[in-house]
Amino acid sequence: MSSAPSVLVIDDEEIIRETFEALLGSAGYDVRVAETGRDGLDLLAQGSFDVVLLDIGLTDISGLDVLEDIRRLDDELPVIMVTAKSTIENAIAATRRGAFHFIGKPFQNDELLIVLHNALERRRLVKENRELRTRLRSDSHRLDEIIGGSSKMREVYDLISRAAPSRTTVLIQGESGTGKELAARALHRHSARSDRAFVTVNSGNLPPDLLESNLFGHVKGAFTGAVYPKKGMFDLADKGSIFFDEIGNVPLETQAKLLRVIQERDFMRLGGMETIKVDVRIIAATNVDLRQMMEEGKFREDLFYRLHVISIQLPPLRDRKDDVPLLVHHFLEKYGEENKKGPLELTPDALDLLTEYDWPGNVRELENVIERAVVLSPGNAIGVEMIPDHVRKAPNFQMPQFIVPPEGISFKDVITDFEKRLIESTLEAAGGVQKRAAELLHIKPTTLNEMIKRYEIRPRRKRSGNGNGGDAAAAVEPQVPAESAAGAVPPAVVFDEK
Ligand SMILES: Nc1ncnc2c1ncn2[C@@H]1O[C@H](COP(=O)(O)OP(=O)(O)OP(=O)(O)O)[C@@H](O)[C@H]1O
Ligand SMILES: [Mg+2]
User: Fold this and answer.
1) Region of residue 268 (phi > 0: left; psi between -120 and 50: alpha; otherwise: beta)
2) Interatomic CA distance for residues 189 and 185, integer angstroms
3) Alpha-helical segments (H) within 97-225
4) Each residue of 201-240: pLDDT tens digit?
5) How far is the CA of 198 from the centre of ligand 2 (A)?
6) How far apart are the C-alpha atoms of 5 and 29, rounded to whole Å?
7) Measuring from each residue's beta carbon to the nearest atom of ligand 1, which residues come in under 6 Å?
8) Residue 153 Cα: closest atom of ligand 1
9) Which DSSP helix (H) or strand (E) runs through 284?
């Protein structure tokens, strides 16, 4: 259960403290108040708060000094300065000392709620980034260049680590862009062969003769133009590893020769008679269904089983979406450095979009999206406008399916229930800010406010901070009220802000 965000109000005026308490309490915050800077700092030292509202003109110590003390206690705690004397000098002094924002008295309620909401989002982001940085350095969240801490990826790391030391052939399967080549390199790197060559074969659409001459070399005069003898990739890879990227492209004739190298550990050059001994570890990758190719007679069954001794399946990115924030962070660091930009971050909305998308091109597609955003982004915070259109296609409003029970249902109750839940969901999406929710629903704020009162809706805040980037769809899913018109409206009315 995520508890309500907690705010500490430090203000010497009783009326202001009461106003904050009432306003923020009804907006779903857990509010504590302190009259003096000293009391405020004591409360901070005892408990944990998510955000502080700090008056500049306190009676005991100056608000700016309190701000400095807070910074020493917790460098990441957002502090919003509040003052009647909202002078430029004050604002500059406060932001210099690390205030998150500055609000002048009197303030608009909506303005305050928005600033608070942003401060909380900011805190969540800073915390998440710190956690991601730590995770990126930890062994459980990466293997060499392969990034991911999901249970599926950890199984992959485990398999790679166990398979690496042997000479056994490994088949790596997975959709395009899932990191098959990275896995092959990791297998090589963690083997005793790591100081020898890792040779990659892209069989592409090479005609069998050319492919075989590349792989095994040829003797002088093997074919027209073979003026000199030539060594092949298997010679190069001796005592090392050879990686067949897309083994499904290897023609049937060549497949037979590969089988021979695997079984006999020797080969013959094109046009040659002599067998050449070789000690090579074979790693193969594919994104096609080799079993089906086998059934269609396009892939040799004996080779398939020789390759399949150990098989590593790389999961598509859509099946391990909890890795998206970590990958994003990794690519932001990588392309940030490459493009000589400072520390970069994605806004929470942009990250939500990336987490919702299905990534048919897997990690490669995600990497390209981040690289593009890093290059094009003018500032250090990368927002939704930097995400390509096809990725940020807005999720649609989903109308529930109505199933009318045999005994019938009260039309009025269903409509009331529907209205109530639509308002609740929209308030969530608007971070509890009624004005914004009214805009989203294309109604007047006063109309929305009337309905909120009529239906006795107690706004809840959008809390997507679950430590791994959040799940926007889950966060905006409304609770089913106890008096729900059961049977008529299915529980989820999903309405997303984007
Ligand atoms: N888990 C990962 N962590 C970090 N980068 C990754 C990961 N998976 C893939 N990549 C990156 O995505 C790109 C594609 O990876 P790779 O070439 O290994 O994929 P592949 O499965 O071989 O794809 P294809 O079948 O299209 O050849 C590379 O730039 C790689 O660095
Ligand atoms: Mg590849």
Assistant:
1) beta
2) 6
3) 109-137, 151-163, 180-189, 208-216
4) 998 778 888 899 999 999 998 888 888 999 999 999 999 9
5) 14
6) 5
7) 145-148, 174, 176-182, 287, 363-364, 367
8) 1
9) strand 281-286
